[in-house]
């Protein structure tokens, strides 16, 4: 994450809200981060070089068509991809460069996905802390001067 010039967090629904939270959280730790919660935004008409970009996708099922499309688009244009999913065997988990799965059973009721998001918040916070510590090492700033 610290090697990327830009980190993008993608999610839909509750995962979209968590992508916004994660983008703000990572920005607080010094990572240049933006959230994408609209998968229908037109893609750039000219070829883009995303080789200095990390796309972090949040998806409980790892099977959402829009998440898969975003992962493929950014990979085809040079980005590294990472996912946080509840299912390590999902299509998204297999597609991305890096995957973190929290392996809890999905809880579905009617058309609602009520799977706990607590693991996602925990993982985003741990990623932020680790990235911040790594940034401090790169900058050679004593970490006890900040924390």
Element-by-element helix/strand order: EHEEHEHEEEH
**Apparent shape:** globular
Spans of at least 5 consecutive residues with low confidence:
none
Please list the strands of the largest sheet in the order they lie side by side: 2-1-3-4-5
Q: What distance lies between the first and last C-alpha atoms, to the nearest angstrom?
A: 20 Å
What proportion of the residues is helical, as a percent range? 25-40%
Beta-strand content = 15-25%
Largest sheet: 5 strands, parallel
Number of helices: 4
Instruction: Let me know the number of strands.
Output: 7
Give the class from helix and strand content and strand pairing.
alpha/beta
Computed Rg: 15 Å
Average the pLDDT over all residues and give the rounded result. Answer: 91
Which secondary structure elements does this structure contain, and how are they paired or packed?
Blueprint: E1 6-10, H1 14-28, E2 33-36, E3 53-59, H2 65-76, E4 80-85, H3 91-95, E5 98-101, E6 108-109, E7 112-113, H4 118-139
Parallel strand pairs: 1-2, 1-3, 3-4, 4-5
Antiparallel strand pairs: 6-7
């Amino acid at each position: 994450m610290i090697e990327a010039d830009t980190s993008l967090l993608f999610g839909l629904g509750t995962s979209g809200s968590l992508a916004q939270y994660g983008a703000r959280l990572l920005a607080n730790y010094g990572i240049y981060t933006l959230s994408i919660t609209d998968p229908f935004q037109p893609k750039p008409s000219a070829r883009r070089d995303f080789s200095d970009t990390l796309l972090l996708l949040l998806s409980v099922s790892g099977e959402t068509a829009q998440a898969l499309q975003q992962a493929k688009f950014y990979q085809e244009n040079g980005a590294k991809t990472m996912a946080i999913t509840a299912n390590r065997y999902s299509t998204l988990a297999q597609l991305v460069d890096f995957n973190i799965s929290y392996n809890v059973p999905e809880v579905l009721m009617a058309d609602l996905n009520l799977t706990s998001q607590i693991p996602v918040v925990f993982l985003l916070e741990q990623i932020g802390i680790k990235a911040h510590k790594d940034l401090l090492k790169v900058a050679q700033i004593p970490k006890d001067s900040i924390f």
